[in-house]
Write a structure and sequence with these properties.
- By secondary structure, the protein is an all-alpha fold.
- It has two domains: 56 residues; 49 residues.
- 82% of the residues lie in helices and 0% in strands.
- It is built from six helices and no strands.
- The longest helix has 23 residues.
- The radius of gyration is 16 Å and the shape is flat.
- The relative contact order is 0.14.
- The mean pLDDT is 90.
Amino acid sequence: MFLAVTGQLFIKRGVVASSLHPSILSILQTLFSPLILIGLSVYGASSIIWLFVLQKFPLSVAYPALSLTYIFIVAISIFFFKEPFSYYKVSGIFLIVLGVYFLFK
């Protein structure tokens, strides 16, 4: 979970720093920028770990637990990217946690 969140953080920073627009050259330049490459590598590593998680746990348990990454993404977005914090986000986080809680019961 930590690696997936970290990968997303690097990808977001990389895409914000790029001049991405819909052209092949722009897309390739963005894909091969250092921050994007780091983000994709870290996210790729989390995908490999995910394979082991799926081997050990039922999908009905593992996948909902993965939704907890949304909570970390919201917190990181507020802290690192100064995205707005609202009661709707708090409500959404609460519902995610509540849903995962009930799935683990």
